[in-house]
Amino acid sequence: MKVDLVAGVTPVSLGSVEQTAAELTDLIKQCGHAEPDLGVHVSAREAAEIAHRSSAGLLAVVRGPAADPALLLGVLTTGSLRDPLAKQFDSDIRETAEGHTAHGYPVAFVERVVTAEQLRAGSPFDCQLQAVVADPDHSRLAVFTLSSTTGRGWLEVSAVFGRLVSSVDFRD
User: Could you tell me the pTM of the whole model?
Assistant: First the structure.
């Protein structure tokens, strides 16, 4: 599977958890929206561990001029388009959409945003957009998750995410 690395997407190396965490920490700090050093490092380490545990093929920072950095995780797996989304429908789904990529592959998007009730209860804020692109000829799925802890510039980073997802190509 291939994707175009569109403007605003900066991938990090997936060589080792330590290398991934270090590169991710540096990228987030370069965005100028960094929290205290320890918080950024801990978050980067957690993201690196998740990426390596899930055998991710892509971990990247998504940026926009007026947006806080968001994290992008991409995993290639097998199954049907509905499998990874089926368990999502009892959670905090805000919106769903289906369509096709630029290469004609079916894609489903699920947006999850924290509710006002969760904010009042003191839950941490998180915006998450998932896209699942299916390769029906080979029962493969590319599952992408975009996550922002602040939501600042969410529409901007979501548009970058959409351009990347639209470029998925399963042809070898």
Answer: 0.85
